[in-house]
TrEMBL record:
InterPro entries: Kinase-like_dom_sf, Prot_kinase_dom, Protein_kinase_ATP_BS, Ser-Thr/Tyr_kinase_cat_dom, Ser/Thr_kinase_AS, Ser/Thr_Kinases-Pseudokinases. Residues 28-283 form the Protein kinase domain. Keywords: ATP-binding, Kinase, Nucleotide-binding, Serine/threonine-protein kinase, Transferase. Its EC number is 2.7.11.17. GO terms for molecular function: ATP binding; calcium/calmodulin-dependent protein kinase activity. This is Serine/threonine protein kinase. Transmembrane segments: none annotated. PROSITE patterns: PROTEIN_KINASE_ATP, PROTEIN_KINASE_DOM, PROTEIN_KINASE_ST. ATP binds at K55. It is an enzyme of class 2 (transferase).
């Protein structure tokens, strides 16, 4: 079955565990390393006789808190049984390290897929990805979760090539108080995050704009600026260059989503509505690789 057939015929699946408690007897070690972040390593394991991803936090105090917060957010989202996010399977505390078992995503991240496949998917299927990611953000924001590190590397592909939002290590719960803290990955950071101002879920919309550009252009523009110069530029309204062959309505949507003013960025729901309403126009206007 081709990638195109899988995407068009499939619906994402959800995990529905009865209990998230686990012991070391529930999984076997020894699989390949799937990823390594600032506070944890993710490895492939067999969990209750099924392939899974196991995140192992390091034993630093701040890593312990980050992992504890992450598993709690994942538990709340998984309890809702929706297909938009990587599902939690179980967790435990072992020798001051959190072990978090998660749904295994066999096709890796969108970023890895793009890096390993020089030939882009048809634009129609790239738009399907973007719509499903927007649906995922709607789900997060309706449940008061701000991801804070949305990017191609944190959007994973299941066996049928459906994208799911993963890695909630930077995520936070929205309350009556605005969020604070310089959290995320520089290229995807909204200006208010860089400036260490208070912020809300609109930082995810900014990150979605960069991710949308990453997917439709099948890469990201390179910059000869230093990281400091780039970040200062973002705070002054500078943005990555849009491809000249980008469909007009996609370019307009990206530009709106990375607006300097958070209140002027559309919601995830508004972005999805625009994509749905303009799909035919975007495809007919496309000068990107079809």
């Amino acid at each position: 079955m081709t990638i195109e057939t899988k995407l068009e015929a499939s619906e994402p699946t959800t995990a529905t565990p009865n209990s998230y408690s686990m012991t070391v007897k529930d999984f076997t070690d020894g699989g390949e390393v799937l990823g390594k972040g600032s506070y944890a390593t993710v490895i492939e394991v067999m969990f209750r006789n099924k392939k899974a991803a196991l995140k192992i936090s390091d034993d630093r105090k701040n890593a312990h808190k980050t992992a504890k917060d992450e598993k709690e957010i994942m538990r709340q989202l998984t309890d809702l049984h929706k297909p938009y996010v990587v599902q939690l399977l179980g967790f435990m505390l072992c020798e001051n390290r959190y072990l978090i078992a998660m749904e295994y995503m066999p096709n890796g991240s969108i970023e890895d897929f793009i890096d390993c496949n020089e030939e882009p998917l048809p634009l129609s299927l790239r738009l399907q990805w973007i719509k499903k990611i927007a649906e995922g953000l709607i789900f997060l924001h309706e449940n008061h979760v701000v991801h804070r590190d949305l990017k191609g590397a944190n959007i994973l592909l299941d066996k049928d090539m459906n994208p799911k939002i993963g890695d909630f290590g930077s995520a936070a719960i929205m309350t009556d108080k605005p969020l604070q803290g310089m959290v995320g990955t520089p290229l995807w950071m909204a200006p208010e995050v860089i400036l260490r101002e208070s912020y809300n879920e609109k930082v995810d919309i900014y990150s979605l704009a960069i991710t949308l550009l990453q997917i439709v252009s099948w890469s990201l523009p390179e910059s000869d600026k230093t990281l400091h110069q780039f970040l200062v530029g973002v705070t002054q309204g500078e943005r990555l260059e849009l491809p000249k062959n980008l469909p007009h309505k996609l370019g307009k949507l990206i530009t709106k989503a990375w607006d300097q003013r958070p209140d002027d960025r559309p919601s995830a729901k508004e972005i999805l509505a625009k994509l749905e309403a303009n799909t035919d126009d975007i495809l007919s206007d496309s000068r990107l690789t079809p």
